[in-house]
Specification:
Blueprint lengths: L2 H15 L12 H10 L5 H14 L3 H5 L3 H8 L5 H18 L8 H4 L7 H10 L10 H9 L8 H11 L2 H17 L22
Helix pairs in contact: 2-3, 2-8, 5-6, 9-11
């Protein structure tokens, strides 16, 4: 099978396995998703979801976050790890969105990555989930799966993103990324591949 055929087969297999492709972070708008994703660096989504209700109750939007007291933000997010750096980033994000984007979270990758602590992975997630744009979120699960399927031969996130944008149907790319997270946790884990219950075993090189 060619890479395009493998990609389409993988998309179909994961659609059947995980019909509901949803982000595991809890949020209600673009600002909350952006902040939650920043907090998720080197932290579980479950932990972030425990922290954000109190954080968003206190600072529900960019303007309020821009005016936040650093020590208060630190105390609210301390259990997420790297809290001092993250707290500074959150306040800077609030300030820049307020000053440069009129309080609205920008809708392009190029603009999003100008925000403090925001990389392409976070920018793609916001563009895909909030603004419905084609997105390729190259987290560790996605990169692992793309390599095991033989679709890429690199762990560089930007290179993986560029290659997979060529292969994935644009309208399905964002949901596919969410499904790879679930798949990477359940079946195609970092330590072991459970090929005996993998829906892609028939065409995955790593299973053959």
């Amino acid at each position: 099978m060619r890479k395009r055929e493998i990609t389409l087969a993988a998309v179909e297999a994961l659609e059947k396995l995980y019909p509901d492709a949803v982000c595991s972070l809890t949020y209600t708008d673009a600002f909350q998703l952006l902040i939650a994703t920043r907090l998720s660096a080197q932290c579980t989504d479950a932990r972030v979801n425990m922290v954000t209700p109190a954080l968003f109750a206190r600072f529900p939007d960019a303007e309020s976050m821009a005016k936040a007291n650093l020590s208060e933000v630190e105390s609210l997010i301390k259990s997420c790890g790297l809290y001092k750096t993250k707290a500074r980033d959150l306040i800077e994000i609030g300030k820049k969105i307020t000053a440069d984007f009129g309080g609205r979270v920008p809708d392009t990758i190029e603009e999003l990555i100008t925000l403090s602590g925001v990389g392409r992975k976070t920018a793609n997630l916001v563009c895909g989930d909030i603004y419905g744009k084609p997105a390729v979120v190259t987290d560790t699960h996605f990169i692992r799966l793309a390599n095991r399927l033989g679709l890429v031969n690199t762990k560089d996130p930007l290179k993986v993103e560029k290659e997979m944008r060529k292969l994935l149907p644009p309208e399905k790319s964002s949901d596919f990324c969410h499904r790879t997270v679930l798949f990477g946790r359940d079946i195609c884990t970092a330590r072991h591949t459970y090929c005996e219950r993998c829906p892609m075993s028939g065409f995955c090189p790593s299973c053959n």
